[in-house]
Structures are given as structure tokens and as C-alpha cells.
Amino acid sequence: MVTRFAPSPTGRLHIGHGWSALMAMDMARAAGGAFRLRIEDIDAARSRPEHVAGIVEDLQWLGVAWDGEIVFQSERLGQYDAALERLRQMGLLYPCFCTRADIQAQWTASASAPHGPEGAVYPGMCRALTESERARRIAAGEPHAWRIDMAMAAAKAGPLRWTALPFPPGDGPGRDIPAEPLAAGDVVLARKDAPASYHLSCTLDDAAMGVTHVLRGDDLFAATHVHRVIQALLGLPAPAYVHHPLLAGTDGKRLAKRSGSIGLADLRAEGADPAQLAGDLRAGRFPVGISLERA
Ligand code: GLU
After folding, report:
1. Which end of the chain lies in a sparser environment, N or C, as judged by fewer CB atoms within 10 Å?
2. What is the whole-number distance in angstroms between the Cα of residue 117 and the centre of ligand 1?
3. Dist. CA 141–CA 144, nearest whole Å
4. Is the distance from CB of 116 to CB of 185 less than 8 angstroms?
5. Ligand 1 geometric centre to CA of 217 (Å)
6. CA 78 to CA 44: how far, in whole Å?
7. 200 with 189: CB under 8 angstroms?
8. How far apart are CA 182 and CA 155, in angstroms?
């Protein structure tokens, strides 16, 4: 068994991250497997080296210990490029020149914008462009993302399933879930401002790191349907998935990477005992006012 924790260095970690990392580590250790750490730093505008150092410090303080070297996505751009090229050769990607405003305008104009689990999906304007129009706009240097034609991709991949293991980990048998990627629409695989998207880099890296069991938040449940299709198209193995509830604060709102007494660094500064905190998190005892987000 290989599990992993994969934070984006856009801020310091809060106790929800610490809880998730501990669960992933414990799951691997209980099975005599390995636990890996990956820093998801392809978003150059939002990732900061000081947050990487802060995340490492927060995890070490809490007693989270990973096996092997830390994997940095910013060092794997060549792999993402190669996968994009393969998908492009398969005719499954198209350049998208739309700005956020273009997409918003289209949503506003259409009475019934199709909605996926993540909200309104891309309305598909650039899917309709001709090859010559695409070539002309690329040659003119127009900024563009690359989207996957999901209907075509799903048809090519054929029917797929993935395994959802129960939360808490180890609690009973898994469920076999039919992949339903169409609901997500034509998601972006390479962003205008980054050489890959989360969907592509995460899927490729889990495979490259030999991850067999992905433990992550419920907020990424919908993403798993998309990842399953990418795995099938690129001939990658499919890990099993545990999606855990997220933590909410006193206001009922999901914890975010912002400063506050729930940050691991803040708790440390307040003199919290990390061994006790780790024990509490493992037992599902959260600081006053923090609870599992209701589904
Ligand atoms: N980097 C993602 C985040 O910080 C998590 C990715 C994953 O676990 O698949 O939300």
C-alpha cells in the first residue's frame, strides 16, 4: 500500500490538513506500506517557497513522517507536457481561448447552463472552432488553455468504475462506483497560466509515485470521476479512494488556509502539545467549535 498527502503551498496548514495527513500516514503504516509527500506547486502565481517550508515544519511538528523524497510538481513539467501531447495526438484536446468573462457571459445568456457537481460547466464555445481557426489563433499568440473533449474521451475510454473505500479508512468493504465524467464537462488539462491543471498533474503523479490508495477530502469526490478517465486514456493504474468529510468552524463554514487559532503553526505558537493534538485528531476530537462539515 502506498498513500500520500498532497498539499498546495498556498498557505500554512490547518488542523483539517493535519488530520488528513495523519489518516493517510496511519493507513499506510497499518498495512506495512509507504506514505509519500507531494507538493502541488504548479500554480506559480499562488505557490510560495515560504509556504513549502511552513508546510514541512507544520507536518514535522505534528509527527507526520513521510517516506522517500518529497515530490515537487514544479519539477515534473516535462511529464505533464508528454501526457498532454499524447492526448492531443489522440484528438481529445482542444485549445480554449475563452476568458472567464466570456464563459460568464455565455452562462448568463443561456437560460439553462448545464451544471455539474462543481457548478456550471464550460459551455463549449471553443469546441466548435475549426482546425484552421485554432491554428490561426495559436499562431497569433492568443493565450489559450487546453480542454479535454469529455464526451469524446469518455466514449474512447468506455465504461469505467472506481473503488470508493469507506471513511474512516479500514471500516468495511469498498463500493464500486461507475465513473460519470460527463457531468464535469470539458475540464481544463493545461491552464493558460500553468503548464498543467490539477486534474492532469495529480493523476499522473499518483501513478508515478505508485500510490495505491488516495485519501483526500470530500471536496474532490467529483474530481475522481475525471481522474479515472485520464487514467484509462493514458494506461495508468487506478488507485482506490477514501474521501473524508471536511472540517467546519464555529461559523459552520469549511476551514480554509487562513490564519486563526486552527492553524497548526498558531497552535504550536500557543504552546500546544503536538503528541496530544495528534492523538485527539486521530480519535476525531477536534478543538472546541470545530466539527465535521455536514454533507
Ligand atoms: N493539492 C490539493 C489540495 O491542497 C489536494 C489534491 C489531492 O489530494 O488530490 O487541496
Report:
1. C
2. 17
3. 9
4. yes
5. 8
6. 16
7. yes
8. 10
Q: Which atom of ligand 1 is nearest to the CA of 216?
A: 8
For residues 247 and 18, the answer to whether their CB atoms sit within 8 Å is no
Pocket of ligand 1 (CB under 6 A): 6-8, 40, 202, 216, 220
Question: Ligand 1 center to residue 8 CA distance, Å?
Answer: 6
Banded model confidence at residue 253, pLDDT cuts 50, 70, 90: confident
Q: Cβ contacts of residue 278 below 8 Å, gap of 6+?
A: 18, 22, 62, 63
What would the CATH number be for the domain defined by 1-69+245-294?
3.40.50.620
What nine digits make up the cell of 97?
A: 481561448
Ligand 1: nearest atom to the Cα of 10: 4
**How does pLDDT run across 82-141, given as a tens digit for each residue?**
999 999 999 999 999 999 999 999 999 987 878 877 788 999 999 999 999 999 999 999
Asked: is 79-162+179-210+218-237 a CATH 3.40.630.30 domain? The reply is no
Cβ pair 190, 80 in contact under 8 A: yes
Q: In the chain, where are the structural domains located?
A: 1-69+245-294, 79-162+179-210+218-237
Residue 62 backbone dihedrals phi, psi, to 5 degrees: -80, -10
**Ligand 1 atom with least separation from CA of 4:** 8
